[in-house]
Design brief:
The complex is a heterodimer of chains A (about 110) and B (about 150).
Chain A (H helix, E strand, L loop, with lengths): L1 E7 L3 E10 L1 H17 L2 E12 L1 H16 L3 E5 L3 H9 L8 E2 L2 H7 L2
Parallel strand pairs in A: 2-3, 3-4, 4-5
Antiparallel strand pairs in A: 1-2
Helix pairs in contact in A: 1-2
Chain B lengths: L17 E7 L8 H12 L3 H22 L7 E8 L4 E8 L27 H8 L2 E7 L2 E9 L3
Antiparallel strand pairs in B: 1-2, 2-3, 3-5, 4-5
Helix pairs in contact in B: 1-2, 2-3
The chains are: A alpha/beta (about 110), B alpha+beta (about 150).
């Protein structure tokens, strides 16, 4: 699991996840995701390179997202593949954290 | 014994392959399941979406056994058998020696109105029901026998 972050215009923090968000991947992602959640006010979680997402991986997204939202921040999910999106929808997370496949729309939603 | 892909038991009969993975109840052991599934996927020419479904169901089932069945005891047995049924399904049978729990009879976590209410866990049963073609449970002599079946394309 590779995780990278970048600041993009508009005060947005983009965190890109790359790899499998299984039990091992989630454990690798947790620390960095929680650090990002500690300062980000507008968080774009880039899922385009996530190959697998299980419930432990969901946890690694939901807990930081909840932290950002609890401070009045915004969180969007960007670019999950079809199966990853199916996991998000089955879990009902898509109704709480919006999913976008167009980057401009994702950025606009964070305004 | 822990089976790695190189140590997978050979098929008993060519027409009905039977493969077994034996794990202990440690989270780090569960990672051994993925190369095993990869070997199965290659052997049976499993499409990517079915492979994803198998992986998510096995992860949920196995992690539930470790977390909730054995409650963190790290040296308890879990066996996973795989066979191709006559109906063209790839069938995984998972046995443990944990207290009996029927996930087929359990309620799914309710839908959440806000992210503040969302419990990070509790999605495993919902995901297994969604991604497995069939989920069945039966008591085993010393615990549980969970069966997950996935239809393969003809």
């Amino acid at each position: 699991m590779q995780i990278s972050t970048e600041d993009i215009p508009g005060g947005i923090t983009r965190v890109a996840l790359d790899g499998r968000m299984d039990i091992a991947g989630a454990a690798q992602a947790d620390l960095k995701m929680n650090i990002v959640a500690g300062f980000a006010a507008k968080l774009l979680v880039d899922l385009r390179k996530v190959e697998f997402l299980g419930s432990m991986g969901l946890r690694s997204i939901v807990i930081p997202a909840r932290a950002v939202r609890s401070r009045g921040g915004k969180v969007v999910l960007f670019g999950p593949n079809e199966m990853v999106q199916s996991v998000l929808k089955t879990s009902g997370i898509d109704s709480l954290l919006p999913i976008y496949h167009d980057l401009d729309a994702a950025i606009a939603a964070l305004d | 014994m822990i089976c790695t892909p190189a140590a997978i038991m050979p098929a008993a009969r060519p027409s009905t392959p039977a493969l077994r993975l034996v794990l202990t109840s440690r989270l780090e052991d569960l990672g051994l399941a993925w190369p095993w599934v990869e070997a199965l996927a290659d052997h049976y020419h499993i499409p990517a979406q079915t492979r994803f479904a198998i992986e998510i169901c096995l992860e949920e089932a196995l992690s539930n056994i470790v977390h909730h069945g054995y409650r963190g005891q790290g040296d308890r047995p879990i066996t996973v058998d795989c066979e191709l049924s006559g109906a063209g399904e790839l069938v995984f049978t998972i046995e443990d020696e944990a207290p009996r729990f029927d996930p087929c009879a359990a309620d799914e976590s309710p839908a959440h109105a806000s992210i503040e209410e969302l419990k990070p866990g509790g999605q495993g049963i919902r995901l297994m029901r969604k991604f497995a073609g069939r989920v069945t449970w039966a008591p085993a002599p010393n615990g549980n026998r969970l069966t997950l079946a996935f239809a393969l394309p003809h």
